[in-house]
Amino acid sequence: MQTPQKIAVVGSGLVGTLLAIYLKKLGHTVHVLDRSPDIRTVEFSGRSINLVMSNRGWKALEDIGLTEEIKKIGIPVDKRAIHLKDSKLNYQYYGKEGEAIYSLSRGVLNRKMIDLAEEAGVEFFFEHRIWDVSLADATLHIGETERGEWTDLKYDKVFGADGAFSRIRHRMQRQSMFNYSQEFLHIGYKELHIPANPDGSHKIDKNSLHIWPRGNFMLMALANLDGSFTCTLFMPFEGENSFESLKDEKTLVDFFAEFFPDTKEVIPDLVRDFFKNPTSYLVMMKCFPWTHSDKVALIGDSAHAIVPFYGHGMNAGFEDITVLNEMIAKYGDDWEAIFKAYEKSRKPNADAIAELSYRNFMEMSAKTADEKFLLQKKIEKWFSDKHPDKWMPLYSRVTFSLQPYSEALAIGDFQNKIMEEVMQMENIETIWDSEAVEVKIISLLSK
Ligand SMILES: Cc1cc2nc3c(=O)[nH]c(=O)nc-3n(C[C@H](O)[C@H](O)[C@H](O)COP(=O)(O)OP(=O)(O)OC[C@H]3O[C@@H](n4cnc5c(N)ncnc54)[C@H](O)[C@@H]3O)c2cc1C
Questions:
Q1: What is the pLDDT of residues 231-242, one digit of tens each?
Q2: pTM for the whole thing?
């Protein structure tokens, strides 16, 4: 047990709220401050970003007894449904039978987590904008405007869970030996909507992550509990087939008719949604160190903002909490040791999931429609079913296991090299499940 501390968590997003519950259960006084109004009082139509939760996220919830509560607001998703250009549908199962990720509305999940945190005794302060932090004594500076009057709030510790554009990190960036990089993708995204049928049922299979892969752009859809789907169109900002090129109603409707013909019936408000909803940016951010003495630590997107193509930003943030909690159990009241061990353990793994997520755009938007790639996946699955002790596909390592992301990345690269050789075998299309292929993989594995 730790000596009780007065702790501020800046940010009432998913990571800040879960961290607050953990800290409260450890006996601390926990204040969560957020610049936004309470999300539970803000009306939203359910059209918010959808997230997928996988094993790392569930582990962090499980350790604190929240899995069952959260599963109630999620929908299991066990496969990709690939919508080809000719409207044919291919299904690709994610893992072994019974393995699934969960589709959750970020807004609904966030509201639920704040309820659970309040029940645990966490105190929330909404519409409290943090402008700065004094790192040496964990004092927050809040106020209406950046140049107006500020109030100082003194804590024993401050956690910056204030997202990709963190103010807490902003202050840390001015320290010497603080490394930082930020990169905006040339691809943006826009949300569209598939409404429910009049009887509340889903128009397309709710247990699939739907993808319309079209090379350098793609459409995705994930089910909501109310029968609707949140769709996300990922596309370059400029150039051919870009947001810039879809200027008016006619070009938009023609574009969808050409590339996503089977969405005509299910996205009735395409034109309205497309021109009303903003086009959002995607940013990757890396930094180090994540902590300052025993006073201040970054967690979640404020420490590692990644692109969403592996569905792991929140999962990685939740895993930060699992590791922080392990370090608390190990080092007790020695917060400096806790912080050092936490950032040392997490940094290589955050970098690895950033890399995997970046690479996965091409897998989702182009390769999922490629025959050779599908055959490679089929061989991997066949070999893995036969030799589960020798082979776990990369997606399963990242999503259905708790193996550190950095190990998953390294083994994934090794396995990919093997598969490149296997795919060169003569007549691989016909001999893919033969003894020759099995022997070849086993021999390459032992090299
Ligand atoms: C399109 C898209 C799809 C995604 N899909 C997935 C997915 O499938 N699976 C997955 O795991 N992840 C996914 N993610 C990533 C996931 O949404 C984030 O990783 C996660 O929400 C980060 O949570 P956080 O609590 O660290 O930060 P945030 O959710 O950004 O929360 C930060 C909070 O801090 C507050 N704040 C910011 N600045 C201040 C300030 N100065 N003062 C006070 N408060 C402040 C904000 O109001 C906010 O409430 C996706 C992201 C996007 C964009």
A1: 999 999 999 999
A2: 0.96
